[in-house]
Fold these 2 entries.
Entry 1:
Amino acid sequence: MNPHFLFNALNALAALATVAPREVPRATGRLRQFLRASFDQQERLLVPLEEELAVVRAYLDIESLRLGDRLKVEQTIDPGLLQALMPPFSFQPLVENAVQHGLHSSPRAGRLQLIARPTGEWLEMSVRDDGQGVPSTEIEYLFFAERPQVHALVLLRRRLRGLFGRSFQLEVRSEIGEGTTVTMRIPMPKRFGVGLESPRPISSELRELALN
Amino acid sequence: MWIRIRAVIIEDEPLAAQYLAALLDDTCQVDVIGSAIESEAGLRLCAELRPDAVFVDINLPGKDGVSLAKQLAMLPQPPRLVFTTGNANRATDAFRLEAVDYLLKPLDPEQVTEAVNRLLAYLRPFEAGSSPSSGDLGNGVPTADKMRLTGAANELLPVKDVDRDQIRLLARREVVAVLRRERRTWVHTVREDFATYYPVADLLRWLGGDPFVQIGRHAVVNLQAIERVIHYGDRLYRVRLRDRASTEITASRTGAARLAPVLKMQSAVIRASVNDLQRLA
């Protein structure tokens, strides 16, 4: 979890306590839900998309406390995929990236498009923002450079590599004035071969991989 | 006549803007006459309304609060600035822009009241009792440019308290010494020291002369905070400070020349004892 998110959330709660005290319990509940999921993410290797979407919604609810009407979210989720398995906290960083960088790049930005759909043998998830965008030539440096404070997408890429080896894609498309789209493709569950009903306990080796 | 401060809020987050407006309203000293959610609209609004004060979020989307502040300063009737920020790291940017105060989020009602009182001191100096010092700059008369850079208006120096992730505002009298080492400028108080990025020369101007003396190219000390002066040869002085670490500083030749008359005048020269000499040898 990005510490700025938590600081922002606490600032928003402090403000809400004066501006609209009756909203505080609900907002706190959303934050609680998000933190619970964040603390528990290491317990299971994979979770259904539906669960990941609930985390994303809790996240967006908290951010919309701050951002107000500016934040507009359109979701296109293939209903057939709701039970599809994916690593926990893999869609959420794409959304957080779009809020933190995309929406912050311009005062007029505020629209997010979330998409989850099957493409061939892949489960494809993408987030598009209507921010400033960055020159396509700088994408690699801005999003994936190794530096002391690595970008959330670098961490996500490491986790996906640990889980899927080379069978995944994480791709950023952007141009100045065109916003940014981050797309993640992971193998469809049946190919990956993990039973849907039995989320297995994670062996220590796999846990290490997932954390790398 | 009782006139309230006419203020504008420039903040991209509606909740934060509402909260600040509520706290300002509670002080009964401020009329919020307008608000904007981004820099360009904020600048236009201030040009039109000519407020006394502007509360600016440093971290605005697109063009941020620091570049906006530079433009506000160029208005025919520039407003006084108070910055708000969720990030203590940004405070030092704001200091260079002559801000009256910095408010770290989450905003605390008392902090806001204090900022309003400081605004009043600038805007109504005769009513507020004591006028803010225009900066008694003992180290040469500054040009207008230097005044702008160092912000003579700044009564308090923001420094980052890393342990508590807070901005601390230091008064001049709290400062024991300013020392350059390891590519930072350290501001020592009696109990703590803070690493900053301020040039020593800027801090020297802010400190404004007596009781502060530059005793080396990289050292400014508060004469009242010297625990002892060790005189170990012709124009060779070491100064020990009354801080937690009993920091010792060797005076440069020029520094010693500045120090000597002051010490004579204050009868504070302590001849090095045999012990001190032995310890130094």
Entry 2:
Amino acid sequence: MGDPRLVNRLKEARTAAGLTQAGLADLARVSRKTINTVENGVYIPSTILSLTLARALNTTVEQLFQLAE
Amino acid sequence: MTEANEIERERSERRRHAWRTGAMALIGLGAAAMALGGVTALDASDRERAIGLGVALGGAVLFVAGAVVGWRWRHRPEAWRSEGGYRDRVQRQRRSQMLMMPILMLLAVGFGVPAVISVLAGDGDFADWFWAVAIMLHALIAPMMLMGWDGEARKQKRLLDDEFTRQLRGRAMALAFVVLTVGVVVVFGIGLWRPDLAVTLMPIALFVAGAAGCWRFAWLDREAEHLG
């Protein structure tokens, strides 16, 4: 499910916001497991979920996810 | 709540969950042993009847032990809500149901296949017809649960139906479809040789496909939670 072309900064953004995985999961209304798999690059979230995560962390999708050079 | 507290709480919940899973396995095994022992004891010689009753008694002990363990480590909704993470716990509970479903289905198959054989032999009574129909209806439960179409899943849709779960569900259904296709091809091949045997094997093919889907979902869900 993961893709090496994707650079994922969700974990950095979450810890910078002072949130636990469970806390972010509550804000995004998904399971902690979903956050865990996204952070570890196992699962690539949909556009909707990416936007939801970005909103919960008060940032932009581009700050969370980028294409590798 | 700090990260360390949260990890400890998570560990504690995992322990409770492991106990509950063990309890459900005991209940399932106990029920299967009771059914098997009961069926063996019917229309059998004295020795076989004694063995069947022994197996059924052992099953009853396992069943009661499982119920006691399950009660000791039961879910406590008031505790979940106060601690948060309710969605994860509901999803974990769902995974346990997916693990146990095929074991319960096996019971129906155990009753249904002899009934189908009796019906095909032309000496089926009302009970045989009932089980022959029930086994096919029962086979629909696994795919319905997997797709989240059952009553509980609809009631808990908000908690169970996130996009990651849908992805796991799709992968599990893909495996179930492959297993079903292979099963139907095999049953068709056997049907060319022995049509009556093919009809008997049809519910087993459905059971294997449904079980494969349920267990694949549970496996993927557990893997995602632990390995991430």
